[in-house]
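Narrative of activities, Objective 1.

The group set out to show that a structural description can be obtained from nothing but a protein's sequence at a throughput compatible with the screening campaign. Below is one input-output pair from the validation batch, recorded exactly as produced.
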Amino acid sequence: MNMKRPALATNHIFLIGLALLFATGCTRNPATGAEKSVAGTGAADTNVVDAGANLRVPNDYRATYQTLGTWAIAADSGKGSKEMHIVYASPGAAEAYRKTKQFPDGTVLVKEVYQTETSDMTTGTVSHPDTLKGWFVMVRDSRNSHPGKPLWGDGWGWSWFDAGNPTHTTSTDYKNDCQSCHVPAQATDWIYVNGYPVLKQ
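Output recorded for this entry:
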C-alpha cells in the first residue's frame, strides 16, 4: 500500500531529528559522512584525525580554539627564555574541565613551540615568540579506541609536527617520542594543568 506521510508528522520527525543532533553535540562532515565533535565532546574533529587515525594540526585553531596558557623555557645561559610554548584547547574543553577535572573525549590540545627573541625594554629584559619551530598535538581518547596504533595510547593521541608541515607528523611512537616529557604530569592525565589558569574554578 502506498500512503503519503502527512506533512505535519514529517515536520515533527524532522524537528525531533534536529533536536537529537544538537543534543549529542555532533555534526556530520558532508564530504566524508564522518561525525566531528562540537564543544570538545564525542569523536575527535575530522579536521584533526583522519579515517586512519592519523593526526594533523587543526585548521584555524588560533581563531576557533581557546588559549590555555604559555610556558617560558629559560635560556641555557644569560637572561630570558630560549623557547615559548603557547597552548590552545578545542572549543568547550576548558569549560568541561572546570566542571569535571577531566578533558572530555575528543578534546584537542595544540602547543605551538617558538624560538624566542630577547631584548631590553622599558619593563626590563623581555622574551617574545619569534620563529615557529613546530606544533605538538594531542587528542583525548579515554577509551583507547585505536589499539595497535603507535601514536595512540594512555588516553591520548600524540604527534609532533615540524613547522611548515602541519599534516605530516615526525613522531613514530608516542612512548618514545612524546610521553617521556609528560611523565611528571601522569597524575593529571599526562597534562601539566597547573600552568593553565583558565582551568581553575
